[in-house]
Automatic annotation (TrEMBL):
InterPro entries: RNA_pol_sigma-70-like, RNA_pol_sigma-70_dom, RNA_pol_sigma70_r2, RNA_pol_sigma70_r4_t2, RNA_pol_sigma_r2, RNA_pol_sigma_r3/r4-like, WH-like_DNA-bd_sf
SUPFAM superfamilies: Sigma2 domain of RNA polymerase sigma factors, Sigma3 and sigma4 domains of RNA polymerase sigma factors
Name listed for the protein in its UniProt record: Sigma-70 family RNA polymerase sigma factor
Organism per entry: Solitalea agri
A GO MF term: DNA binding
Upper lineage: Bacteria, Pseudomonadati, Bacteroidota, Sphingobacteriia, Sphingobacteriales
GO biological process: DNA-templated transcription initiation
Residues passing through the membrane, by range: none
NCBIfam families tied to this protein: sigma70-ECF
Residues of the RNA polymerase sigma factor 70 region 4 type domain: 109-159
Length: 178
């Protein structure tokens, strides 16, 4: 089979390929693109086709693989490229290029709040924060597990009260006054 005969046979399949492409894409324009990609690959690799085999099946396989590869590429790109929704001012707090000096001030405030805790709350809270389990803290401090849970809960409430400006979002915002 000559290349021209092969191209003619491939182009005759374009209408059935379009229907098959719509099955994947659910969009007419995307289906047309997929058909075009499929036809281009089929014509480019015509020497891979074995005469006497199912041309339509071969083209469908090319289309399916093309769609899958394009989908995987799209997923990978969307995971790497930042979407515009992620760049909203509210989300910039979580940016990788945050101000290191601001972090130092926050850490100083947290350490100050921790130092204001009495020893009975400070010790179980810091142990829990470091990864100790409730029962390990209870054994280490020789107090009941319920007391450990209560002290950690009270320490959280005290810290939350002292650091309420951070939870309310008042720190780090520019306030304009007339």
């Amino acid at each position: 089979m000559t290349r021209i005969e092969f191209n003619t046979l491939v182009l005759r399949q374009s209408s059935s390929l379009k229907l098959y492409a719509l099955h994947f894409t659910k969009d007419s324009d995307d289906a047309n693109d997929l058909v075009q990609d499929t036809l281009l690959k089929a014509i480019t690799y015509y020497n891979k086709f074995k005469e006497g085999t199912n041309l339509k099946g071969w083209l469908y396989t090319i289309m399916k693989n093309t769609f899958i590869n394009n989908y995987r590429r799209l997923v990978k790109v969307n995971n790497v490229v930042i979407q515009s929704d992620d760049i909203l001012p509210a989300n910039l707090l979580y940016s990788a290029t945050s101000n290191g000096a601001e972090g130092k001030f926050v850490l100083e405030d947290v350490n100050k709040a921790l130092s204001n805790l009495s020893e009975e709350y400070y010790t179980p809270f810091t142990m829990y924060f470091e990864g100790y389990k409730y029962h390990e803290i209870a054994e280490e401090l020789s107090i009941p597990i319920g007391t450990v849970k209560t002290r950690i809960h009270v320490a959280r409430k005290l810290l939350k009260g002292q650091l309420k400006d951070y939870s309310a979002g008042r720190i780090g915002k520019v306030v304009y006054e007339d």
